[in-house]
Amino acid sequence: MFSFHPAFYIITIRGDDSGGKPGKLHQASLSGDEVEVRNILSKGPDLNLLDKSGRTPLHLAILGRHVKIIEMLLEAGADTSRLDESQDAPLHMAVRTGDENLVGIFLRLANCDVNIKGHGSRTALHIAADMDKISICKILMEHGASPDCCDDDNVTPLTQAVEKGAKNAAEFFFRRRSAA
């Protein structure tokens, strides 16, 4: 029995908005083909063209955890604030990977709003707190993420952590609050 990465389904089954076939830059970004990405970028493509899930090549490079391609797309001017169909910005997607190295690299390379709000007005810090990823919470806060941002339900990342039973994240936020 075969199993495919969820991103494989997104790009190969759903396609993009240019006629139902996946765009070459989308495919190369997802698969990690640095040579092809470099070749396509040299032709000046629309870096922010959306597939049918509203994802840009940057979203797909993050899904595939292809750091070099992420770097190439950012240097070429990819939009870091574009929300996909699920209302995830590239930063939200990076946090959802649970990969602190990827999140740190993305934040160092990208000129992005660390407090960008996605679905339900949740920030990347809400997502990291929900996942109980203290290391990612720390990285986000070092880059200016606000622990006081509220989502649509007036929930902060601390409240999110407590409600979801993310004990490590809740302790992290409590310690930071009491130290202030």
Automatic annotation (TrEMBL):
GO cellular component, one term: BRCA1-BARD1 complex
GO biological process: protein K6-linked ubiquitination
UniProtKB keywords: ANK repeat, Repeat
ANK repeats: from-to residues: 53-85, 120-152
Keyword Repeat found: yes
Superkingdom field: Eukaryota
The name this protein goes by in its record: Ankyrin-repeat protein
Phylogenetic classification of the source organism: Eukaryota, Metazoa, Cnidaria, Anthozoa, Hexacorallia
